[in-house]
Amino acid sequence: MNPTSKNKRSKTSQAWLNEHIHDPFVHLAQRDGYRARAAYKLLEIDEKDQLLRPNSVIVDLGSTPGSWSQVVVRKLGQKATIFALDILPMEPIDGVHFICGDFREQSVLDALETAVGEHAVDLVLSDIAPNMSGNSVTDQARSFYLTELALDFANHHLKKGGCFLVKVFQGAGFQEYMAQMRLSFAQVLTRKPKASRNRSNEIYLLGKNFLGQ
After folding, report:
1. Is 54:119 a contact under the CB 8 Å cutoff?
2. SS3 assignment, position 78
């Protein structure tokens, strides 16, 4: 191993740890009992766009550790039907139907579709992201493949007028993906919540009023 590369990784890890320790949203999550700081991203977007509504059917893609599902349950309680999926295990949350599996595999997608059944989905949430390799080109391609799968799922399961919130990374493929979303939704908006770190090129795209299959 190249000692210089090792030192760079050590410095990066130390910088991340220092940022994490001093992150106000980390402290808020610990105080409020959320499993991750990402909860505040959804909370801020929902405050602006009122996505979480009673009697909704909601699918949470890339759910682990479960902070977005927690937000949904805390706001809607038993007044929502929630399906969650992730490649990593997730500690149970009352009221959330969880499937553990790789979203890229057809068998896992089939299991999710079976669970959803005949429900017309009101909202698809996707905070899904690949394990990062450090190669920006590879990571961007992997990320957009997952977001394309999420959009395809939304296109097949959302009811007319439904909404789709997805995390994307700005870079190659971003404009093309936004153009794809505009074919399916009456309105496509960008959201950069305060809990999304400034140095991150992540951004959320919100598709409103699904036009129907």
Report:
1. no
2. helix
Residues in contact with 183: Cβ distance below 8 Å, sequence separation at least 6, in sequence order: none
In the numeric block, the tokens 């979480």 are attached to 52
80 neighbors 72 (Cβ within 8 angstroms): yes
E strands, the chain, where? Answer: 56-61, 80-86, 96-100, 121-126, 158-169, 185-191, 202-210
Mean pLDDT of the chain: 88
Question: E strands, 34-95, where?
Answer: 56-61, 80-86
CA dist., res. 107 & res. 125, Å (int): 20
Rounded CA gap, 151 and 147, in Å?
A: 6
**What amino acid positions are annotated as catalytic residues?**
167
Measure CA 78 to chain center. 22
Our measurement of the distance from residue 71's CA atom to the centroid of its chain's CA atoms, rounded to an integer in Å, reads 13
Q: Quick check: helix, strand or coil at residue 103?
A: coil
CATH of 35-210, one of 2.60.120.10, 1.10.8.60, 3.20.20.80, 3.40.50.150: 3.40.50.150
CA distance 158 to 154: 5
**Side chain identity at 14, as an amino acid letter?**
Q
Q: Is 107 helix (H, G, I), strand (E, B) or coil?
A: helix
Confidence of residue 16 (pLDDT cuts 50, 70, 90): very low
Across 54-67, average pLDDT: 97
| Tokens 């770190």 -> residue | 197
Which CA distances in Å does 19 have to 23, 74, 200?
6, 28, 13
